[in-house]
Write a structure and sequence with these properties.
The complex is a heterodimer. Chain A has no helices and eleven strands. By secondary structure, chain A is mainly β. Chain B is mainly β. Chain B contains no helices and eleven strands. In chain B, the strands form two sheets. In chain B, strands 2, 4, 5, 6, 9, 10 and 11 form a seven-stranded mixed sheet that branches. In chain B, strands 1-3-8-7 form a four-stranded antiparallel sheet, with no helix packed on it. The model of chain B has no long low-confidence stretch (mean pLDDT about 95). The chains are: A mainly beta, B mainly beta. The interface between A and B is medium-sized, with 23 and 26 residues.
């Protein structure tokens, strides 16, 4: 069974702070996706990383795929209240997408 | 807006009843996936259809079934409902049949079983 553990589970920070969310597994994935979900809504795809060691930037968000394609991180610079939400990583292997346990982020003024 | 539509938005029903959730994928997407999200279980994959055929099964109960129609919309049928079936049900779609294809999620159906 493929498991994706995210840490931290909860994170409450002040506006302007930086943060990093981790997504770890013992399994190798062909690609890894990050989603953000707001209460009562569906997850929204943020990025897909495919190559081991790959780094992608999306404005203030930086995503990295581990060299061995087993883990990933999401770094947010100068967090804003609009970044508040549930962040989910999801590892892809053949037909299956396995979702991580989620990180609930709250950014306060 | 992901382009995936789901109806209804909310559903309240009693234990033992049967309900049908509907999903229309993004234009051009052939795969439809169903997920269940509850507070204690996170986002759980239920089942996938690709171009009308069942492609993969996840943690789907025998009381649940799904199908994908020729126009590619999909329905998830939940029967003999129990209190524990209360959850958010999401449909997602992708262009291909493999999980490596990016999945786009609908707004979900919130099911409450009383």
């Amino acid at each position: 069974t493929q498991l994706l553990e995210q840490s931290p589970q909860f994170l409450s920070i002040q506006e302007g702070e930086n943060l990093t969310v981790y997504c770890n597994s013992s399994s190798v994935f062909s690609s890894l996706q990050w989603y953000r979900q707001e209460p009562g809504e569906g997850p929204v795809l943020l990025v897909t990383v495919v190559t081991g060691g790959e780094v992608k930037k999306l404005k203030r968000l930086t995503f990295q795929f581990g060299d061995a394609r087993k883990d990933s991180s999401l770094h947010i610079t100068a967090a804003q209240p609009g970044d508040t939400g549930l962040y989910l990583c999801a590892g892809s292997s053949f037909w299956k997408l396995t979702f991580g346990t989620g990180t609930q982020l709250k950014v306060e003024l | 807006d992901s382009g995936v539509t789901q109806t209804p938005k909310h559903l309240i029903t009693a234990t033992g009843q049967r309900v049908t959730l509907r999903c229309s994928p993004r234009s051009g997407d052939l795969s439809v996936y169903w997920y269940q999200q509850s507070l204690d279980q996170g986002l759980q994959f239920l089942i996938q259809y690709y171009n009308g055929e069942e492609r993969a099964k996840g943690n789907i109960l025998e009381r649940f079934s799904a199908q994908q129609f020729p126009d590619l919309h999909s329905e998830l049928n939940l029967s003999s409902l129990e209190l524990g079936d209360s959850a958010l049900y999401f449909c997602a779609s992708s262009v291909g049949s493999r999980g490596s294809y990016e999945q786009y999620f609908g707004p979900g159906t919130r099911l409450t079983v009383t």
